[in-house]
């Protein structure tokens, strides 16, 4: 049997620095006989050289549309609407299974390209639980932002909410900033620390929130707080640690790709894909015929 070839796509969504594969997991895949091609990326948290140093093959950014049909493209975020061409087999989160806007055209690109979507959000184990998710680091980052906002608003009463935050190179950088901001807030708050209640503490997000705590903080909740903090894709605040955790959780399933026709996680994902494709209008389910083939038939 030919080895499985994974093609790690460079993410194009703004502010997205995470990666579905990390150098650590890539090395483990290579050790198991996989081939891994990694697109060069100007925004991925991991340098290209971190992948090449473990044996991955670096390829040009955006080269994924031209990979052979048997290669599996892996990434995190959906593609841009400006790329309407048919799609091949892909492992990524596509946001087209819950009747999201334009879902028919997005999903229809896979049957037109003869490909299968293995949606990351619907890769599930025998108990119906996602095999890999970013919830832990979403909770961790959310807790950090809440404390940063608390300290900021006490120190800058007339300056509005917390300014926008970019990603952090490491968790320790975020931790240090939060500790400093909370210390300033406590001074402004007459020595009183922030009080927080963790709701849903047993879930992935809740566990991440619990992890982010300081022993000198008392935890409770004020339902009448007059400010709120929001951000797009929270785990991107800590792209390195979030990617490492996610990729490690995904690894056991990736190692089953050579048996994807019998491995439950992949069988289930393909079954769901086919069920969703069956809901598409017939015109969006037909496989596209390459221009060269059409001309030959003519």
List keywords for this structure.
298 residues, 6 strands, single chain, 10 helices
Q: How are the SSEs placed, and which strands pair?
A:
Blueprint: E1 5-8, H1 23-31, E2 35-39, H2 48-52, E3 57-59, E4 72-74, E5 90-92, H3 103-113, E6 117-119, H4 135-155, H5 171-188, H6 204-211, H7 239-254, H8 264-277, H9 282-285, H10 291-297
Parallel strand pairs: 1-2, 1-4, 2-3, 4-5, 5-6
Helix pairs in contact: 4-5, 4-6
Structure commentary:
The protein is an alpha/beta fold. It is built from ten helices and six strands. The protein has helices spanning 23-31, 48-52, 103-113, 135-155, 171-188, 204-211, 239-254, 264-277, 282-285, 291-297; strands at residues 5-8, 35-39, 57-59, 72-74, 90-92, 117-119. A six-stranded parallel β-sheet has the order 3-2-1-4-5-6. Strand 5 (90-92), helix 3 and strand 6 (117-119) form a beta-alpha-beta unit. The protein is elongated, with a radius of gyration of 22 Å. The two termini are 37 Å apart.
Helix content: 25-40%
Terminal Cα separation, in Å? 37 Å
Number of helices: 10
Stretches with pLDDT under 50, minimum 5 residues = 215-227, 291-298
Q: Largest sheet at a glance?
A: 6 strands, parallel
Shape, please? Answer: elongated
**What's the pLDDT, averaged over the residues?**
85
Portion in strands? 5-15%
Strand order of the largest sheet: 3-2-1-4-5-6
Task: Write a brief structural summary.
With 298 residues, the chain is an alpha/beta fold.
């Amino acid at each position: 049997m030919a080895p499985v070839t994974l093609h790690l796509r460079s993410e194009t969504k703004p502010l997205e620095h995470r990666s579905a594969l990390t150098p650590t997991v890539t090395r483990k895949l290579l050790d198991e006989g996989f081939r891994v091609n990694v697109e060069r990326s100007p925004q991925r948290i991991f340098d290209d050289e971190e992948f090449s140093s473990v044996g991955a093959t670096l390829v040009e950014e955006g080269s994924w549309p031209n990979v052979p049909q048997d290669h599996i493209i892996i990434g995190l975020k959906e593609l841009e609407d400006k790329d309407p061409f048919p799609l091949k087999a892909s492992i990524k989160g596509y946001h087209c299974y819950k009747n999201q806007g334009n879902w028919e055209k997005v999903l229809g690109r896979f049957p037109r390209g003869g490909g299968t979507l293995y949606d990351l959000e619907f890769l599930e184990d025998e108990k119906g639980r996602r095999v890999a998710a970013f919830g832990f680091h979403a909770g961790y980052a959310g807790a950090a932002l809440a404390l940063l906002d608390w300290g900021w608003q006490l120190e800058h009463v007339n300056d509005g909410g917390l300014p926008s935050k970019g990603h952090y190179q490491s968790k320790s950088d975020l931790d240090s900033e939060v500790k400093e901001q909370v210390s300033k807030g406590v001074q402004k708050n007459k020595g009183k620390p922030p009080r927080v209640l963790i709701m849903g503490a047993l879930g992935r997000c809740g566990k991440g929130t619990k992890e982010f705590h300081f022993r000198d903080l008392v935890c409770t909740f004020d339902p009448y707080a007059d400010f709120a903090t929001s951000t797009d894709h929270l785990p991107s605040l800590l792209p390195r640690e979030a990617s490492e955790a996610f990729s490690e959780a995904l690894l056991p399933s990736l190692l089953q790709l050579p048996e994807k026709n019998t491995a439950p996680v992949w069988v289930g994902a393909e079954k769901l894909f086919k069920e969703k494709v069956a809901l598409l209008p017939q015109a969006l389910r037909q496989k596209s015929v390459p221009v060269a083939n059409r001309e030959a038939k003519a």
